[in-house]
Write a structure and sequence with these properties.
This protein has 3 domains: 6-77, no CATH class; 85-186, no CATH class; 196-328. Helices cover 24% and strands 39% of the residues. It has helices at residues 6-32, 36-43, 46-77, 316-328; strands at 85-87, 90-92, 97-100, 106-107, 113-114, 121-125, 131-133, 136-144, 149-154, 158-160, 163-165, 168-173, 186-192, 196-198, 201-203, 207-212, 215-220, 225-227, 230-239, 246-253, 257-259, 262-264, 269-273, 276-280, 287-289, 294-296, 300-305, 310-315. It is elongated and about 100 Å long. The two termini are 50 Å apart.
């Protein structure tokens, strides 16, 4: 551990604060010279205020030097490329605004060398000439090198690993050290256009799809979706391949609904797997079995098929364990 001299650190901090105050006071004096009445008062005492200005200027030097040093460091970390740079499969045209994570050669905690200079690229803005990544024109690129992730903003729609991804943010995953090897990038997340059909359901709003190995998961989080006559305000669907049949889905009722011979309140979770629907009632909610006219108490899950036939009523705890085990089953 690097020793820290607290008194010296505190002294440096105090010098920085007072230097900033001196700069503001000096600025106030200069502004006063622009006001006729104040200017006459200052000029009448020019030696006194001249000496004060010199002292304030000298006292402001530490703050000005510090800010100038920070500005130089920022400029070094955020250059605009004067010439084209090629990093593996990534081509950075001249004029690209980049952010570099490291400027100096160093090692990490395990003793491995850390990329520096242009190899430590963290962010790129293609604001003058569009970049090209995996054949897609892009506006910007963000690399999360430590996490093995990359986010790009595409200009147009593209098909990626079987998905028709809309323009906008697309996320990829890659193995350690492969941040400039596009052949090793795998699609992690993108958005599909409103009106996309997945699992026999038309999704009216944008659909977020992402890899949830070994499956894909699609979600609609902002636009209600109609499923089997029910309106779900949130829907998540899992499938084995892009645009393949749904293996399971779950969501929350947006409104109260009659499904088969059971009346359900709003805001309860509905899950589906292998043609069975599970309506889970929290302890504060009750459903109505219209066959008998009796309520189904909270804390229970009603199991029905897609035709609405009631297959059973179980406690949430018991049904949750069964459903979880089925999800783990091959």
């Amino acid at each position: 551990m690097i020793p820290v001299d607290m008194p010296i650190m505190l002294l440096g901090y105090m010098i920085y604060i007072f230097s900033e105050v001196f700069l503001w006071l000096l600025s106030a004096c200069l502004v006063a010279l622009l006001i006729p009445r104040s200017r006459r008062y200052v000029l009448a005492r020019r030696w006194r205020f001249g000496l004060l200005a010199v002292l304030l200027a000298v006292g402001s030097v530490p703050y000005v030097e510090s800010e100038f040093s920070h500005w130089q460091q920022w400029r070094a970390h955020n250059p605009r490329l004067e010439h084209e740079e090629v990093l593996g499969d990534l081509v950075l045209p001249a004029g690209t605004q980049v952010h570099l994570d490291n400027l100096d050669d160093r090692v990490d905690y395990s003793g491995k060398p850390v990329p520096y200079g242009i190899q430590s690229l963290d962010h790129a803005e293609f604001d003058r000439t569009p970049g090209t990544i995996m054949g897609m024109p892009v506006r910007r690129l963000k690399l999360w090198q430590g996490h093995g992730n990359a986010t790009v903003e595409t200009v147009s729609a593209h098909e990626l690993e079987g998905w028709k991804c809309e323009p906008g943010e697309v996320e990829f995953e890659f193995p350690f050290g492969a941040h400039f090897k596009f052949a090793e990038w795998k699609l992690h997340q993108c958005y599909l256009a409103p009106g996309t059909e997945l699992g026999g359901i038309v999704w009216p709003g944008p659909v977020r799809v992402f890899s949830s190995a070994p499956e894909w998961e699609a979600r609609s989080e902002g636009t209600p979706v109609q499923v089997l006559g029910m309106e779900l305000r949130w829907l998540s669907m899992r499938m084995a391949q892009p645009y393949g049949p749904a293996r399971s889905w779950d969501g929350f009722l947006n409104h109260a609904v009659d499904f088969g011979q059971v009346h359900y309140p709003a805001d309860i979770q509905v899950r589906s797997r292998d043609g069975r629907l599970l309506f889970s009632l929290p302890s504060s909610k009750r459903a109505l079995d219209r066959r008998t006219g009796k309520p189904i108490e909270g804390g229970h899950t009603v199991v029905q098929n897609e035709a609405g036939e009631v297959l059973g009523v179980h406690t949430n705890a018991d049904m949750g364990i069964r459903f979880f085990n089925e999800l783990l089953a091959p």
